Amino acid sequence: MDTSYLEGLRRELTNHQDHMHPGYYFVGDNVDLVTNVRHISQVRRNQSKHLYQICAYKYRVTGNHLSNTGPIGDNSKEPFGNFIPNAEDQERLIDHFTIIVAWHWTSHIWLLSEFAKHLPKHTKHKHMREMQEKTRWYVNLGVVRKNEQYNDQMTDICEFMHKDVPGHSVDDANSHPVNTLSGGDYLTFEKHKQAQLGKLNSRTPSKRLERLIAKMEEFHNQAELVQLIWKLLYNDDSSQDVGTLHAAKNMLGATNVSSDPHGHYYAASFLMDKFGAAYIVAGGLHHFKLKSPDDDTWGEEPGDMTEEAKGEYIQQKARKFVEQYCMPSVLHFDDLAPLSNDFVCRYCVNSYKRPKCLQRHETATHGHSDAIHSEHVPESKTTETNSVFNYTRLFMVLSLLRLNHNDVIQMGDGERIMLVNRYLYLFYKKVGFVKYAVGLLESLAQTQVLLSPRMAYRLLWNRTVNHQGKAGCNHPNHPRTL
């Protein structure tokens, strides 16, 4: 599409901001070109070029019915507990896991195939109509000869993008740029904010790169999740241990899968699909007391039931299986837990700079002890000595989180994407992926506190593009998606 069309929309948004134009957002990523010559000479040498590609998409969900005047909340007063999964999030995740397990059972177990037609084909959400429309408004803004890894060059990239922000004016100190999202991977997200910090003392809003809001996209989050699973569950020394990822790799002959899935994402993803489906089907066979997927004799006869009851029956069985084996443990703090970010004692007016100092004061002076308990932990087989059960349960949790994450991206369900991210950033922090943990936490904060209601809604529901015009055909935002 011609970039002159984008220029026309930019002028329209600048001059008629009250007309509720749908608006657009930017997505960018690096383009690395490496050329190796066969015979090196003084003239012909190996080359490595780092460029940056940018494109613009129109918002499929505008959020224009919401306010755009101020942030949703006050980040200095927002309790951190609001970013930790709670009991309601746990119930929603159970529902999502249940339908995924039911799909696998009815697809691979012959006796359960008759229940497939009573299950929903897609997980629905309130913006299904917009998310199944083909993304037609796409403008390639070109490739900039800059490397995002360097702060000065990332500043040039942001200045290049800001020229297309509605309301942009380099020399007008009274200009009012319009809030515009700018997406990328974690490196882009981090460098984008550093570039804006370096321009804080500039004279005009456009020179300060104001209203260009950085956000993290999902196209690298999928690969980071596989990296997380590999770090926790893949070990070259486990090739002889039945039920491990390495043993499954050897059994399938997946020689293209390595101990580092970073450069072999699709091979590792394919192995995860096969291995995850095998575990879910094996759990179904155990649950229904069947000997094999092709078994034609019920181990536990379901009895006669109406057509309407069949869908409910298979989902009830899947839900029971999920609750018993597949749910991550969630910590719930009691009512006496710290509810403030100021570290003020709950018994007196003393305040502290560090949480450990506050805890010592409450324990020594007031005799307080926090009571933390977890839910959805199986009542049996939770001992550390049962390593097979613990390995299998952890794999089921991570595999279903990954399957759920892929499904919500395909459906374009922004709310469920953020629900999965509420769990993922905790896993990332636990295994040492601190940068992605902080990035996902900030993305959650953007949708709950930092941005205006309209921009938070736009960030939430415009994380994917659709190139086929059908339900379930969405992909993460990326400059090379379409």
Structure in words:
α2 (87-108) packs across α9 and α4 (151-162) crosses α5. The protein folds into two domains: 3-72 and 136-216, no CATH class; 80-130 and 220-453, no CATH class. It has helices at 3-15, 87-108, 128-131, 151-162, 186-197, 221-233, 245-252, 265-287, 307-325, 355-366, 387-411, 414-431, 434-450, 453-461, and strands at 24-35, 47-58, 138-144, 180-184, 212-216, 330-333, 372-375, 464-466, 474-476. The two termini are 12 Å apart. The strands form three sheets. A five-stranded mixed sheet has the order 3-2-1-4-5. It has 482 residues and is of the alpha/beta class.
Spell out the blueprint of helices and strands.
Layout (H helix, E strand, L loop, with lengths): L2 H13 L8 E12 L11 E12 L28 H22 L19 H4 L6 E7 L6 H12 L17 E5 L1 H12 L14 E5 L4 H13 L11 H8 L12 H23 L19 H19 L4 E4 L21 H12 L5 E4 L11 H25 L2 H18 L2 H17 L2 H9 L2 E3 L7 E3 L6
Parallel strand pairs: 1-4, 4-5
Antiparallel strand pairs: 1-2, 2-3, 6-7, 8-9
Briefly say what this structure is.
This protein is an alpha/beta fold. The chain contains 14 helices and 9 strands. The chain is globular and about 80 Å long.
